[in-house]
Amino acid sequence: MNLVPKFVINIKSMENKYSHLTAIEREKLSFPARYLHRKKLLKSNILDFGCGFGKDVEILSKKGYKITGYDPHYFPQYPQGKFDTILCFYVLNIVFLENQEEVIMNISQLLKPKGKAYFAVRRDIKKEGFRKHYIHDKPTYQRLVKLPFKSIYLDESCEIYEYQHFNQIKHQSSPCIFCKPYPKLILLTESTLAYAILDGYPLTKGHSLIIPKHHEENYFNLSFSLQSHCWQMVNRVQEIIGAKYQPDGFNIGFNVNQAGGQKVKHTHIHLIPRYRGDNQGKKHGIRCVIAR
């Protein structure tokens, strides 16, 4: 007997390959673009991430803004360099949750240290999930989105969030250096619930830390969803470090409690690149943390 609910089977079998069809052809600026333009929040070098057919890029360019558009379906040339302002309008509503975090990590990497990104999400979605598109007759996906960033606009149709790198936000006074990271730190990437930095006392070139924003000393006390969230970021940071330093291997792990070598009382995962010739003797790796 198959005990897996049918709705689970159906969702697992669906692919989110037609959601780009939700892009709308317009003649005017989108509402979020008009709002940010009116509030004078569009600064210097701008990227429209997930620009659809690119109408906002076209109109804002005519208004004198320096703006680049990227969309994996319509403008697939991935942007290079860093940007002062990044726009991401209604993209997160049409991607799965795990893909949402990939989008946010991409934007975090493309944003200058003191830059700002603006996420617009729909608030008028009546039903989450797949539906048949009324024009294209294809299954497109939509979901409600809530982000832990500063909300600067909200009505029944739209909410706009303002995002800054975690270490650029004024946090409440805290003795924990990971809850209130130094503004001069360069974040490797960030998602809704975690961020990554280079270790201040690296064992090897590219030694990185993946840190949940929620303060918890013991890794095993984190929720399973937050643990999974952190490991998704480990994968991303491995790609970043791999591309920059070309290491020959990695050690990955975390310390728990004093006996386990934990010094900072805030959970963090170490991603340590390894290079040929950096080992002492023939024995190395996780099994040799304790000398035998």
Reported by name, the CATH topology of the largest domain is Rossmann fold
Note the main sheet: 6 strands, mixed
The average pLDDT score comes to 90
CATH class of the largest domain: Alpha Beta
Q: Number of folding domains?
A: 2
Total DSSP E strands:
13
Organism: Cyanobacterium aponinum (strain PCC 10605)
InterPro entries: AP-4-A_phosphorylase (IPR052908), Histidine_triad_CS (IPR019808), HIT-like (IPR011146), HIT-like_sf (IPR036265), SAM-dependent_MTases_sf (IPR029063)
GO molecular function: catalytic activity
Protein name: Histidine triad (HIT) protein
Tell me what the structure shows:
With 292 residues, this protein is an alpha+beta fold. It has 2 domains: 14-164, 3-Layer(aba) Sandwich (Rossmann fold), CATH 3.40.50; 187-288, HIT family, subunit A. The chain has 5 helices and 13 strands. It has helices at residues 6-13, 31-38, 55-62, 97-110, 224-245; strands at 45-49, 66-70, 83-89, 111-122, 129-132, 139-142, 150-154, 158-163, 187-190, 194-198, 208-212, 249-253, 269-274. The strands form 3 sheets. The chain has a 6-stranded mixed sheet with strand order 2-1-3-4-8-7. Strand 3 (83-89), helix 4 (97-110) and strand 4 (111-122) form a beta-alpha-beta unit. The longest helix is centred in the last third of the chain and has 22 residues, at 224-245. The radius of gyration is 22 Å and the shape is elongated. Residues 1-13 have low confidence and may be disordered.
